[in-house]
Amino acid sequence: MEDKKKILYSGMQATGNLTLGNYLGALRNWKTLNEEYDCFFGVMDLHSLTVRQNPAEFRQRARNLFALYVAAGLDPEKNCIYFQSHVSTHAELSWILNCYTYIGELNRMTQFKDKASRHSDNINAGLYTYPVLMAADILLYQADVVPVGKDQLQHLEITRDIAQRFNGIYGDVFTIPEPYTGKIGAGVKSLQNPEKKMSKSDENPNASIYLMDDADTIRRKFRRAVTDSDTQVRYDVTEKPGISNLMDIYSAVTGKDMKEIEAEFSGVGYGDFKSAVGEAVAGLLSPMQERFEEIKNDKEYLDKVISANDEKAFYFSNKTLRKVKKKVGLTDRIR
Ligand code: TRP
Predict the structure, then answer these.
(1) In this structure, are 314 and 277 located in the same domain?
(2) What's the mean pLDDT in 269-296?
(3) Claim to verify: residue 95 and residue 21 sit in the same structural domain
(4) Is residue 205 part of a domain?
(5) Among the options 6, 31, 200, 323, which is catalytic?
(6) Residues near ligand 1 with C-beta < 6 Å?
(7) In CATH, what number is assigned to the domain containing residue 232?
(8) Is 197 labeled as catalytic in the residue annotation?
(9) How many domains is the chain partitioned into structurally?
(10) Does 102 lie in the same domain as 28?
(11) How far apart, in whole angstroms, are the C-alpha atoms of residue 63 and residue 67?
């Protein structure tokens, strides 16, 4: 019997500038997953509409995110990488699943409560039903596993609940997805407040390393990173969260463990350590930045890859959508 690979689904929103946290925590690891899984990665541009966007900037950013996926090493022949908004099945299944989701469930979503308080001038229905669209993304591809950060686990949980409810009524339509538990990469913290995660929406630009920061900017941000008044490079997340965050980053980039790093910088001040981290990160990002510039400017190549992958995504997802429509009793289109 042929060994069929399991299916993995993930994606990022095309909002804000991606950070080193997005890269070390997700993107960098995605490219190795296709050895074990059939992978789908979306540019989640429909989700981004839940917050008001400047149309011209948004369009550019979504396309840049796609180019960045490729620059980060996701092979568009081996992975299906595509724009959520180009594949109409997402919006369609999302509507249907809305009718199988309870208001009480959505009311419990902590990210909704948080975003509603931060965007109190625009608490739109899309923000509220955001998790249902995410459920549609995942369920359309019959995904077995979904790598997501902690902040998205609740959305994965509601996806499972919706799928189980639907299957309970109509039989086995959806695969019930599990969170991906493999190696997921470093949890990078803010350089200015190491208690918080490094975020693309942080107001302080010195708190985050953006993937497009040039080497000088990267060095400068690491030099300014908040540490403690001690002088020892020692891993201790509670007592020395700033230094420990820098050590996590350095370890993720160089592959060295904490003992090795402590030895390497024993008796050396924080300044030298910070410079080394800055150099390492600049060295990690610069090849990807160069590839990104090349890919971004190769319109013909990008267009070709985008259109081929959009089609693949539609083909797979439409199989599920057709089944769903039939199960719930929608009439067939006449061709
Ligand atoms: N909501 C996710 C985030 O902001 C992005 C996302 C949308 C996603 N649909 C998804 C992630 C499906 C995984 C699977 O991070």
Answers:
(1) no
(2) 96
(3) yes
(4) no
(5) 200
(6) 9-13, 44, 47, 134, 137-138, 146, 148, 152
(7) 1.10.240.10
(8) yes
(9) 2
(10) yes
(11) 6
- State how far the Cα of 163 lies from the Cα of 100, in Å rounded to an integer: 9
**115, 189, 221, 274: which is the annotated catalytic residue?**
115
279 and 154 within one domain: no
**115 given a catalytic annotation:** yes
Domain presence at residue 40: yes
What is the value of pTM for the model shown? 0.93
Query: Quick one: what percent of the chain has pLDDT higher than 70?
Result: 98
Quickly list DSSP for 159-218. Answer: HHHHHHHHHHHHSS-S---EE--S-----PBPSS-TTSB--TT-S-GGG--BTT--HHHH
Minimum-distance ligand 1 atom for the alpha carbon of 12: 5
The answer on pLDDT for 261 being more than 60 is: yes
Question: How many angstroms separate the CA atoms of 227 and 216, rounded?
Answer: 20
DSSP strand pairing (80-83 vs 145-146):
unpaired
- Residue with CA at minimum distance from ligand 1 atom 14: 10
Q: Are residues 95 and 169 in the same domain?
A: yes
Q: Which domain holds residue 270?
A: 215-294
At 153-162, the pLDDT tens digits run 999 999 999 9
Q: Give pLDDT tens digits for 171-182.
A: 999 999 999 977
- Give the pLDDT confidence of 192-250 residue by residue, as tens digits: 999 999 988 889 999 999 999 999 999 999 999 999 999 999 999 999 999 999 999 99
> Residue 119 pLDDT more than 90?
no
Q: Which of 41, 44, 153 to mutate to test the pocket of ligand 1 (most atoms within 8 A of CB)?
A: 44
> Which one is catalytic: 197, 221, 240, 274?
197
Residue nearest to atom 5 of ligand 1 (CA): 12
Whether 207 is covered by a domain: the verdict is: no
- What residue type is assigned to position 268 of the chain? V
52 in the same domain as 31 = yes
Residue 251 lies in a domain: yes
